[in-house]
Amino acid sequence: MFDIDPKIITFFTIPLSYFIVIFSVLLIQWGMVNMIGRYIGRVSFNHPKLVRAMNWWGVFIHELSHALTAIATLNKVKEFKVTSSGGHVVHDTRVGFFGWLAAQSISLAPAFVPPIIVALLMHYMGYIDFTRVNFNASDPVSIIYAMYLNLIPYIIETTGWLFVNLNYAKVGNFLLLLFLTFSFSSAIPSSISAKSGTQGDIQSVIQMFIKFPVYTILFMLLSIISFWILFTYNIQLFSIVLTYMLLLPVLSIFGLLFNYLFIVIINLFDRSSIMKIIIALAAFVLVYVGMIQYSTAQYIINISSIAVLVGVLKLLR
Predict the structure, then answer these.
(1) Averaged pLDDT, 30-46
(2) Residues 21, 125: one domain?
(3) Domain check: are 135 and 218 in the same one?
(4) What's the whole-model pTM score?
(5) For position 142, what pLDDT does the model report?
(6) Do residue 147 and residue 95 come from a single domain?
(7) Cystine design at 313: which of 65, 130, 261, 268 (Cβ 3.0–4.6 Å)?
(8) Is there a single domain that holds both residue 186 and residue 256?
(9) Alpha-carbon distances of 313 from 43, 285, 301, rounded to whole Å
(10) Helices 113-124 + 235-270 axis angle, to 10
(11) What is the tally of structural domains in the chain?
(12) Domain of 28?
């Protein structure tokens, strides 16, 4: 038997620990996308135009993610198609490792580009700044422990309080809410190919990993080496990169929660008469506007207003 140098084990296990945590959050995001997709079906028969609009926007954001990533990786976009029932992107491809890496990035883009856009908007509006986060765990157990019990809860709490405290009477905040609510679901899985044809995004990624095992291994090694360079020589930048990598799926999850709340309210509207809806909306507006005069805590105004809207709809059923 051969004794494996502990340094070699550490070389692989510590980056793997970070990957496991980040991947687990992405799995939660994926699960919520599927859940929200089922709930959308509950409003499709009563509001076909609304669902078509939601689907169109979701497909547009999905395909735009592919197209932007293709352009960013120096691939020409040949075709960009969006409909309420689906869409696709056709782009150039390049051979070699960098062509393979670009193709993988383009396929995975819808999971990352929409929350990146939201994060950039929030940073531009001065709402988020995680540049002071300090994270420096040094072994797999403490890494997973610290990320699940400290870093991720901190990101969720900070982001959650931000959305709850925003004044949605301001146009910029309201547009941010709309983008957040409708950009992370409703997109029927699109196809992406270098030629006219159909191929699912996830299928494309898996196929490319299996078809080019040397590129896959090279990518993993380069990722691990890049990890250690950043972790060793610039821990502050490493902490920022790690925090924002976790922030992206967290933003997606919040967007899906808002989408779910929107669907719940639509379902309540469907079970109410026009007069009851008008009364509920009027009560919502009166509470939102009236409470601003008496409270400086925006989260109280937001929560109270939505509670009045839902409460009136339920009481008047």
Answers:
(1) 73
(2) yes
(3) yes
(4) 0.85
(5) 82
(6) yes
(7) 268
(8) yes
(9) 17, 14, 18
(10) 100
(11) 2
(12) 6-263
The C-alpha atoms of residue 29 and residue 254 are separated, in whole angstroms, by: 9
Asked if residue 74 belongs to a domain, the reply is yes
Tokens for 191?
């196809």
Token digits of residue 242: 């790690």
Q: Is the dihedral of CA 260, 28, 33, 31 positive or negative?
A: negative
Q: Return the residue matching tokens 């996308």.
A: 33
**287-309 residue pLDDT tens:** 998 888 777 789 999 999 999 99
